[in-house]
Design a protein that fits this description.
- With 323 residues, this protein is of the alpha+beta class.
- Helices cover 32% and strands 23% of the residues.
- The chain is built from 9 helices and 11 strands.
- It has a 7-stranded mixed beta sheet, sandwiched between helices.
- The structure holds adenosine-5'-diphosphate and magnesium ion.
- The site of adenosine-5'-diphosphate has 13 residues, from helix 1, strand 2 and strand 3.
């Protein structure tokens, strides 16, 4: 049973207070719709995600505050993946009876804090009881200079392939959680509070440097595969170039098959993109750092090559998974 239950209207009043007002909005929470003026020369980006308890998260693995942060972050990451700037978030919550007001408040506080980190605001939503699991539905809107949105379909033969930050940490955390092991702090934070790469994405779109881009939510091979499929090209990537964190390298020394988690583990929320420029990774000023991992080829399929020139077969996904 719910220990304390504010009632829908009091809760919404509380949410309105913590959410604040977005400067880009004429009207946020409190009416039937949020109102945002249109800006000439900008395109509106909109994306939506559903998070279901037991499918996308487990309550016992996280805090409500971090769950709120992550729910906002993974949606903001979709705006980043298009090269845009996040602005408004809309939050639908289906709340089971055993979730207290304090849990919901922690959740919304985390959500609002993550939104603020990226200059976005909670601008509306809906709340109701759920007879089943906790349901979280998030819609995010953002904007990008007209014509600057970076699609999946723009990769061309000869483009270099880059990835931001490091890969695999989040998947290590998930594996340890599943096995009931203690997760090292770096892995845990990558899993519980991923950082959408908004600043980097804005830089890439304004510079016009990226031809195709997306965020790594399903794993590098799967997500890069989406770019290749949409662009009608193939790719060769070099195993030794996959960027790994220091803790990941330490784990890899104990278990070499972990490299497959860097290739196919999800939820890193790094950016993978293609560019005709071959030395972008040598330019300073990208945060996090970017690494060139391969090249777009005319031959269909996605091949992972070892330093010795052999084809590497990832244990979790075939090298030609969509071919
Ligand atoms: P309606 O009957 O039009 O759905 P509600 O009473 O559900 O209105 O919501 C009133 C206001 O509170 C609206 O502006 C709505 O966007 C906002 N709101 C409701 N639930 C949430 C939530 N979980 N997060 C943010 N805003 C919310
Ligand atoms: Mg409503």
């Amino acid at each position: 049973m719910t220990k304390d239950n504010l009632g829908e209207f009091d809760l919404i009043r509380w949410i309105h207070q913590v959410a604040g007002q977005g400067r880009h909005l004429t009207l946020g929470i409190g009416d039937d719709c949020a109102v945002q003026p249109q800006v000439a020369g900008k395109d509106l980006l909109t994306s939506s995600d559903l998070l279901i308890e037991g499918v996308h998260f487990k309550r016992e693995w996280t805090t409500f505050y971090d769950l709120g942060r992550k729910s906002a972050a993974v949606n903001i990451s979709d705006i980043a993946a298009m090269g845009g700037t996040p602005q408004s978030l809309f939050l639908g919550v289906g709340r089971p009876k055993d979730i207290d007001d304090s849990d919901i408040k922690d959740f919304v506080s985390g959500f609002v804090a993550e939104a603020e980190l990226h200059g976005a605001v909670l601008a509306g939503g809906d709340s109701c009881g759920s007879p089943g699991p906790l349901l979280i539905s998030v819609t995010v809107q953002g904007q990008v200079n007209s014509g600057d949105a970076i699609y999946r379909s723009g990769a061309s033969y000869g483009d270099a392939i880059y990835v931001s930050g490091t890969l695999g940490d989040s998947a290590v955390a998930l594996r340890k959680l599943q096995q009931g092991e203690i997760t090292e702090a770096t892995f845990a934070s990558r899993f519980h509070t991923p950082e959408p790469r908004v600043g980097l994405a804005e830089k890439l779109s304004r510079g016009g440097w990226a031809t195709a881009m997306l965020d790594v939510s399903d794993g590098l091979l799967a997500d890069l595969g989406h770019i290749l499929e949409a662009s009608g090209v193939g790719a060769d990537i070099e195993l030794e170039r996959i960027p790994l964190s220091a803790p990941f390298r330490s784990e890899l020394k104990l278990n070499s098959s972990l490299i497959d988690l860097a290739l196919s583990g999800g939820e890193d929320y790094e950016l993978v993109f293609t560019s005709p420029l071959k030395d972008l990774d040598r330019q300073t000023g990208f945060s996090p750092q970017i690494t060139r991992i391969g090249v777009v080829s005319m031959e269909p399929g996605l091949r992972v090559m070892t330093a010795g020139g052999d084809l590497y077969r990832c244990g979790q996904k075939g090298f030609d998974h969509f071919g």
